[in-house]
Amino acid sequence: xxxxQPEDDYQPVIPKNLGLTLExxxxxxxxxTLWCEIPEVTNSGILGILSDKQKQLQESIFEILTSEVSxxxxxxxxxxxxxENEDLVQVLSETDRAALFGNIKAGK
Length: 108
What we know:
By secondary structure, the chain is mostly helical. It has helices at 39-44, 52-83, 86-91, 94-101. Helix content is 48%, strand content 0%.
């Protein structure tokens, strides 16, 4: 396993011609995707250029980005199905809503 040291001044490599988009960060239902498995990455030839250490860093960056996108997607579901649900708004007191949802809109 490779670990980057502080003296490593490697910058992430994202060639402009890869055409990476936000949609690529959204995991398909029930499956996770590795950066190195994205067709745009495999077809670009970049995997043959990067060192193992650089590939590990790219995978780590991709994992952080996909985790954040997944979190935001879950937050959208929570807000739209529960927080903004008219039936729940009528049933729950402000105290109960605050206890259940806290400051959920600030997390977005």
